[in-house]
Design brief:
The complex is a heterotrimer of chains A (207), B (206) and C (247).
Chain A (H helix, E strand, L loop, with lengths): L1 H10 L9 H5 L8 H4 L22 E2 L8 H19 L3 E4 L6 E4 L3 H15 L4 E6 L7 H7 L5 E6 L6 H8 L5 E5 L8 H10 L7
Parallel strand pairs in A: 3-4, 3-5, 5-6
Antiparallel strand pairs in A: 2-4
Helix pairs in contact in A: 5-8, 6-7
Chain B lengths: L15 E2 L8 E9 L4 H14 L3 E8 L7 E9 L13 E4 L2 H7 L8 E5 L14 E5 L1 H8 L5 H13 L4 H5 L2 H4 L8 H17 L2
Helix pairs in contact in B: 3-4, 3-7, 4-7
Chain C lengths: L26 H15 L5 E5 L14 E4 L5 H11 L4 E7 H7 L1 H9 L5 E6 L2 E2 L5 E2 L18 H4 L5 H6 L4 E8 L3 H19 L5 E7 L3 H4 L3 H15 L3 E4 L1
Parallel strand pairs in C: 1-2, 1-3, 3-4, 4-8, 7-8
Antiparallel strand pairs in C: 5-6, 7-9
The chains are: A alpha/beta (207), B alpha/beta (206), C alpha/beta (247).
């Protein structure tokens, strides 16, 4: 959470924290060591802030630029900022993903369920791993693309009818099949259901 | 921008690798009943007790919009290793405070599991196989004897704790102050007594 | 030789630059009154303004104070955040009727209802001016606009929304006055009202102050500036009577 504020501050860009009903309802012990995992960043000076123009020129926070060329120049500058974020701020966790045949990709509480299903699958001798994008934008395209070199099949699990599956397909870029399992609002997939989907996967022979 | 990157392994390099240990002890519990029977509180107290005992634990409530009536259940998972899913589809143990909950959840209890049923409000037998240990506890009657029917949840929880032997009723009683709002702290002695009576009942009726 | 004396000059907070407003528009006068107020109260260094969506989005091109441009109608919400986090600053929003009385009705009503300690300058020209003169909630009955070519009818299009009257009944609104800028006497009254509204905030008065300014829009009204002045006097003030409604 602290990281979200720091990123928003550093890049002057809104950071949206995606929540779900389970995150809102459940409880579990939490160790607050955010500072250790996400060390405090050096935040830029806020010389643009509206503090009252005492002894200086006025500051204006605006998005309207009518003079010819100015808006386009700004858009290139903002685009460069997006590129920086994509380069520097991807956060993604993975488990055995590069030594497995199957990678299950999930975020949010679906990722917790997938964790349970993958460990049960491994107990059954199925070579499965998981990939959990913590940032959905910037998306861990590079990590998934790299994992796809060795993995034989991907299963995307979401609490939706498929919002991330296309991102995974773009990252995998045809190197392996990408399948999907999701439940629409009102139902949450269970560990057993995801496990069953993993069992049903037919591992293709690669190249 | 141009801010220093001070965290390792999170940028466009390889994804952070997570290690998972083999599954050790894991107890999954569903507490279920009417809204107003203290279902959510019983679940929270169990979760809190497990946390204080150093276990990994998750707690997930589910209830309707009504404060009274309707159905309520809480799911508690306790384990030695970090818990993946907080949702319980097949519990090891069920505490059913009314008939509807027993009918709904008893068939889902894992073989070798435990069912604590509130016989004050339940006239039926659960649909479970013979490997499952079923204990009928007249929780409401015991609670009324103690002076308040509302502590039937604690009686049932006490019986569960005694049967499972994970933590004693004292350990749970010590956590009451954590989960009860300050204005209800005056009920702690009665709730503690209810936990004890539930445990005692289980001890003498097994 | 006779001694030359300066009797009137541009106030420093009113920037020296060409205007983008149409000939006969009331915004320029209202801007000047705000700038004079800021200078007379000596609050330029701690004043933060909020520009609306509409013709006055460029208010920061004329008013030399810190300013922010916000989403359509949301100025009172942004002002709320600014004032609550910076109670020593003087926060004002400058909004048109398309902004304040249409898409932003919820924001102004609730800011007043919560008694936010902000000052609102509400410019009412009875149309959406920037987009070419469409009907606004404030358009008077019978008024021809591009979207009411036969004149606004109550049936189907509703009645002109009297925001000042609406806010005046709320305990959180401490000062509400309606003024105009179509003739010098009214301009002077408007100045007094705007200054009073700012003064209340400077004094830490507990509540929202708003000055509604009836402003002529010859372009969208399809009139000459002289006809527009006449129309404010004859038609607009019938629906939007001038004077202090509260405080």
């Amino acid at each position: 959470m602290g990281l979200a504020f720091d990123l928003a501050d550093e890049y002057r860009m809104p950071v949206i924290i995606l929540a779900d009903g389970i995150l809102g309802q459940m409880m579990e012990p939490v160790v607050l060591n955010g500072e250790k995992r996400w060390p405090k960043r050096e935040l830029p000076a806020k010389d643009w802030a509206l503090t009252g123009a005492s002894g200086r020129k006025q500051n204006i926070v605006r998005s309207l630029w009518l003079k010819e060329g100015v808006l386009e120049e700004l858009n290139y500058k903002l685009h460069e900022r997006y590129k920086q974020v994509e380069k520097n701020e991807v956060i993604c966790e993975q488990y055995e993903a590069d030594e497995a045949e199957i990678a299950v990709v999930a975020y949010g509480v679906a990722a917790r369920i997938v964790r349970g299903a993958v460990s049960k699958a491994r107990e059954e001798g199925i070579k499965a791993g998981w990939i959990r994008p913590i940032t959905l934008w910037p998306f861990p395209t590079e990590q998934i693309s790299k994992a796809a070199e060795d993995l034989k099949i991907f299963l995307v699990v979401e609490m939706s009818l498929g919002q991330m599956v296309e991102d995974v397909k773009l990252a995998v870029a045809g190197k392996a099949p990408v399948l999907f399992y999701g439940r629409a609002g009102g139902a949450v997939p269970t560990v057993e259901q995801v496990l069953e989907k993993i069992r049903q996967l037919t591992i293709p022979k690669k190249r | 921008m141009g801010g220093k990157r001070n965290d390792k392994g999170l940028s466009a390099g390889p994804a952070e690798r997570v290690t998972m240990k083999a599954n050790g002890f894991c107890e999954e519990v569903i507490v279920a009943g009417f809204g107003g029977q203290g279902i959510i509180l019983a679940g929270r107290l169990l979760a809190q007790t497990a946390m204080r005992a150093g276990k990994e634990v998750t707690y997930m409530p589910s209830y309707g919009p009504e404060m009274r009536g309707g159905t309520a259940n809480s799911m508690v998972v306790m384990a030695d290793e970090p818990i993946a899913s907080p949702l319980v589809s097949k519990p090891n143990s069920l505490i059913a405070m009314n008939e509807a909950s027993l009918s709904k959840f008893a068939p889902r209890v894992k073989g070798g599991g435990l069912v604590i049923m509130n016989s004050s409000l339940i006239d039926i037998e659960p649909e479970v196989d013979e490997t499952i240990d079923v204990l009928a506890v007249p929780a409401d009657e015991i609670a009324v004897e103690l002076g308040n029917q509302k502590c039937a949840n604690m009686v049932a929880l006490g019986a569960y704790l005694q049967k499972r032997g994970l933590f004693g009723p004292d350990a749970a009683a010590a956590c009451l102050a954590d989960v009860l709002a300050a204005r209800y702290h005056k009920t702690i002695p009665m709730n503690s007594e209810a936990l004890q009576r539930g445990a005692k009942f289980a001890e003498t009726h097994s | 030789m006779r001694k030359v004396e300066t009797v009137f000059e541009r106030t420093p907070t009113f920037k020296d630059c060409p205007t983008h407003y149409c000939p006969g528009c009331g915004h320029g006068i209202a801007h000047r009154l705000v700038a004079e107020t800021v200078d007379e109260l000596g609050i330029r260094g701690r004043t933060i303004g909020i520009a609306p969506v509409g013709c006055a989005v460029l208010a920061y091109d004329y008013l030399d104070v810190d300013m922010v441009e916000v989403a359509h109608g949301r100025a009172p919400a942004v002002a709320t955040g600014m004032k609550r986090t910076n109670p020593d600053k003087i926060i004002f929003s400058y909004q048109g009727d398309g902004d304040l009385a249409a898409i932003g009705t919820g924001e102004i009503v609730h800011a007043a209802h919560r008694g936010e300690q902000i000052t609102v300058i509400f410019i009412n020209n009875a149309v959406f001016g920037m987009t070419g003169g469409q009907m606004a909630p404030t358009t008077v009955l019978g008024q021809v606009t591009t979207t009411t070519p036969l004149g606004r009818k109550a049936e189907g299009e509703g009645y002109p929304l009297q925001v000042s009257e609406l806010l005046a009944v709320l305990p959180g609104a401490i000062y509400i006055e309606r003024c105009a800028v179509h003739k010098p006497a009214e301009v002077r009254k408007a100045k007094k009202a705007i200054k009073h509204a700012f003064q209340l905030q400077v004094d830490g008065a507990k509540g929202l102050s708003m000055v509604e300014v009836l402003s002529q829009c010859p372009t969208a009204w399809r009139m000459t500036p002289a006809e527009a002045v006449e129309w404010v006097e004859k038609e607009m003030t019938k629906v939007f009577p001038l004077g202090r409604l509260k405080g």
